[in-house]
Amino acid sequence: MEKTKVAIVGLGTVGSGVARLLLDHGDRTARHAGRALWLEKAVVRDLARPRDCDLPDGILTDQLDEVLDNSDIKVVAQLIGGLEPARTVMLKLLESGKDVVTANKALLAEHGPELFDRARGLGRCIAFEAAVAGGIPIITNVSQCFSANQIHSIQGILNGTSNFIVSQMDELSWSYDEALAAAQALGYAEADPTMDVDGTDAAQKLAILAHLAFGARIRWSEIPRQGIDSLDSTDMQFASELGYRIKLIAHARLAAAGLELSVAPTLIRAGQPLAEVRRNYNAISVVGDAVGDIFFHGQGAGQMPTASAVVADMIDTAVGRAPITFRTLELWSSRESPVQILPDKDLPGRYYMRFQVYDKPGVMAKVTSILGDHHVSIASIIQHEPELDAGDNLVQLVIMTHEAPEGAASRAVSKIEQLDVVSGTAVRMRVMEAPRSK
Amino acid sequence: MEKTKVAIVGLGTVGSGVARLLLDHGDRTARHAGRALWLEKAVVRDLARPRDCDLPDGILTDQLDEVLDNSDIKVVAQLIGGLEPARTVMLKLLESGKDVVTANKALLAEHGPELFDRARGLGRCIAFEAAVAGGIPIITNVSQCFSANQIHSIQGILNGTSNFIVSQMDELSWSYDEALAAAQALGYAEADPTMDVDGTDAAQKLAILAHLAFGARIRWSEIPRQGIDSLDSTDMQFASELGYRIKLIAHARLAAAGLELSVAPTLIRAGQPLAEVRRNYNAISVVGDAVGDIFFHGQGAGQMPTASAVVADMIDTAVGRAPITFRTLELWSSRESPVQILPDKDLPGRYYMRFQVYDKPGVMAKVTSILGDHHVSIASIIQHEPELDAGDNLVQLVIMTHEAPEGAASRAVSKIEQLDVVSGTAVRMRVMEAPRSK
Questions:
Q1: Among A183, A198, A255, A258, which Cα is nearest to A228's?
Q2: Stretch A378-382: mean pLDDT, rounded?
Q3: What pLDDT is attached to residue A366?
Q4: In this predicted complex, what is the ipTM?
Q5: Which of these, A131, A151, A327, A342, could form a disulfide with A105 (CB 3.0-4.6 Å)?
Q6: Which residues of A fall within a CB distance of 8 Å from B276?
Q7: DSSP assignment letter at B222
Q8: How far is CA B251 from the centre of its chain?
Q9: Is the pLDDT of residue A249 over 90?
Q10: Homologous superfamily (CATH) for A3-131
């Protein structure tokens, strides 16, 4: 049987999972690829560090050159996190004639144009299924399976850590801090969870998907984003009372005025598939003009789901499918025309608003008349009686709007915040409509 | 830009959709394939018949030879339904040097080995994403994206007609006949819906998936199957009372004893993703040992979702990905070892049982002691008071079992049916457990 020699650079959690699939289950890759993927080298920084896989003698090395100089090695899984040395290693691998598979979405979101240009110039390819949504093969589905479609929208839960936290806040009425501590204890969140909870990770993934689906060559940092780190459990409770759940939604939709892109906590009606995504799962809803609405749900991270995606890419690269995809899609090439991204404030939609108001006559009239002046129509309202022992005379006023004209909701909220019967700043979140096929 | 000339044979609903995607949206296929797909010919039986698409002059023909003899045409979408002349046309296309894309699952389920062998011998390829679950790209996902996995199970709603009928029976308390009439009025069911409602269509699709996922070279007709045509709305009501829904589930699971395969109405706990699939949608839950559980939901049939899958296959074939997949997977080749299919009665699992019993003392003891003798443990029981005006003194006794030893549930039910306190035959259905990752 034909044999393709492969290597791994970076033997952390995912790298160890990839090594195990290649070493323990070579029969499978042989069966599905029609050839053996032979793990020749695994490059690590520190040879002494204990690892989650058993490697035969001669595979482990701390010398990248043993891969670069070995022209028999054709495919390399580059599994170093962060930007450097990941970027430099990736360039060296490409320059030494290797096709590269990676799970590093930050690297692609930051240096995609440079890396893809270089790979193209060298006649090499980069595969990156594992970079977005882990085990859900959304890259292949969007770039290959839906290629007859104009994609209208992609809405997803792309960060499992955030979803775990908001799910626990919602279902168990935990505070943000309690849910984060649990996520860390279970290994779903890093010691420093900033990139997960502030929306950075989801925005980087969304930038990659938006590029694939809409040819939008945008920087992830341009995507308006809001994390879950400032989420108040009060809003989870009100959302629940209204029949909604709050999820961190990465949103991309092609509208007449341009491309809507955002990452933000969003209210979704309970029972809708995205609303029911629990724990650390990911899920993605895609609407295409021919295929209609398609929904994917699965493990978005973790050792083996991510390794599954990496090894599938290694097989695709070894058999020659990935190079074809890379060549035909011309990702991050100059072929793409720039797409205009709509500013966050201009995204049309329904809104959830919460104000702290003083419990006195005329408050409701003042608030609602400002909304009316801005043509923001009210769909539902909640104001509970003040707590018996509340000393501050403040109550929560929650308003769900109908679809509002662009920018109007934002201007109305600013005006309401200036009222002397309103305390502090308001909370405003988008409300997601069910995905609709055309 | 490079150009690949293509043709369509059969211009019915799906064929017209394919023609529209190719003619009206050539920019897309060009963008995603890096080349133009040029529709050169569309072969029909009757030139005079009105069609759902506008074709430029010179494309429509009733002469298959205009495709066979034109060596510029490389890829042909063969969209004739049924077995003949579909099989003969497919062989002629392959023999004249064309790669073929098809949506005809009956043809593949019946003649897969012959067609794939011939294609291999001729160095041609067959792509068939549209043959299973329409717009859901389950063929690509199972055969390409999950290739690093041992797949443990596939459970799906693969027939939209049946799902529409059972959903309407469940949600609107319609009778089977009412729901079928509505499905026909909406175009979801054929005038003769037999293949859809008796489980044949789902079994043919399951045979294809089982072949891809488990290398099981089996005939679809060997799969134990039961349709929804004998489903009684009484059971929908009891299921609902128990917190379950009834769906027509195509089930494949690799167990220690062999491959479990079946198509049958099955109880699924409400809230589980497969239980919540409404109207004519399809959905599939796949569990792989690395990727965990992945769930897909989308349009399983219909003109444009199916055309979306056909055109994606035409692009894959034109760019060269599909030929690689076809070559490496060696589908329906002699490489596959036969897999032992477990007989229906031996499938382990939980069961729903309904008996009509006479409302007299000692009945419950007789029924439950037979179950106990067969080591079938009872999870829950429902027996309502008899209707006031019921003249026959019969009541419904519904029992949900815990997991039962193989065959025991079946033997116990036979014994219970012989009791003189029991009238007629019992209803027995499987109860699905939530998919579990290892």
A1: A198
A2: 92
A3: 93
A4: 0.94
A5: A131
A6: 271
A7: G
A8: 10
A9: yes
A10: NAD(P)-binding Rossmann-like Domain (3.40.50.720)
- B327: nearest CB among A25, A34, A316: A34
Please, are residues B36 and B4 in contact by the beta-carbon 8 Å criterion? yes
CA distance B366 to B232: 25
What's the N-to-C CA distance of chain B in angstroms?
48
Cα B272–chain centre separation: 19
**Contact predicate B225/B199, CB 8 Å:** yes
| Topology adopted by domain B138-298 | Dihydrodipicolinate Reductase; domain 2 (3.30.360)
In angstroms, rounded to a whole number, what is the distance separating the alpha carbons of residues B280 and B299? 7
Beta strands in A323-421 (DSSP E): 341-342, 350-358, 378-383, 394-401
Cβ-Cβ contacts under 8 Å, B297 against chain A: 273, 294-295, 297
CATH fold for domain A140-299: Dihydrodipicolinate Reductase; domain 2 (3.30.360)
Q: Which two tokens stand for residue B60?
A: 């429509």
A435 has pLDDT over 70: no
Residues A149-170 have pLDDT tens digits of 999 999 999 999 999 999 999 9
What residues contact A365, with CB distance under 8 A and at least 6 apart? Answer: none
Best CA proximity match to B376, nearest among B409, B340, B343, B425: B409
In total, chain A counts a number of residues equal to 438
What pLDDT shows up at residue B284? 98
CATH class of the domain comprising A348-431: alpha beta
User: Which residue of A lies nearest to B143 if distances are taken between CA atoms?
Assistant: A32
A294 and B296: CB-CB below 8 Å? Answer: yes
Closest CA to A417 of A358, A356, A368, A373: A356
SS3 A195: helix
Measure the CA angle with vertex A175, ends A169 and A176; round to 5°: 80
**Among candidate residues A5, A9, A10, the one with its CA nearest the CA of residue A22:** A5
* Helix (H) and strand (E) counts in chain A: 15, 16
A12-56 pLDDT, tens digit each:
999 999 999 999 998 888 888 888 999 999 999 999 888 878 899
- Give the start-to-end residue ranges of the domains of chain A: 3-131, 140-299, 348-431
Report yes or no: B35 and B102 within 8 Å, Cβ to Cβ. Answer: no
* Closest chain A residue to the Cα of B26, Cα to Cα: A148
What are phi and psi for residue B345, nearest 5 degrees? -70, -15
Q: What residues in A contact B141, CB-CB < 8 Å? A: 137, 140-141, 145
Separation of first and last alpha carbons in chain A: 48
Residue B311: alpha-carbon gap to chain centroid: 21
- What is d(CA B168, CA B419) in angstroms, rounded to the nearest whole number? 35
Q: What are the tokens at A20?
A: 């195990």
Structure tokens at B351: 């069961």
Separation of alpha carbons A313 and A201, rounded Å = 21
B407 phi and psi angles, rounded to 5 deg = 80, -20
Give the CA distances from residue B252 to residues A158, B105, B209, B211, B428, in Å, rounded to whole numbers and listed in that order: 29, 18, 9, 11, 19
Tally C-beta pairs within 8 A across A and B. Answer: 188
- Token look-up 């006479």 returns B358
Cα distance between residue B274 and residue B250, in whole Å: 11
pLDDT above 90 covers a percentage of chain B that reads 74
In contact, B152 and B289? CB cutoff 8 Å: yes
Kindly report the backbone phi and psi dihedral angles of residue B308, in degrees, each rounded to the nearest multiple of 5, phi listed first: -55, -45
Confidence of residue B438 (pLDDT cuts 50, 70, 90): very low
Domain B348-430 top-level CATH class: alpha beta
Please say if A366 is a catalytic residue: no
Cα–Cα–Cα angle for A121, B5, A211, rounded to 5 degrees:
40
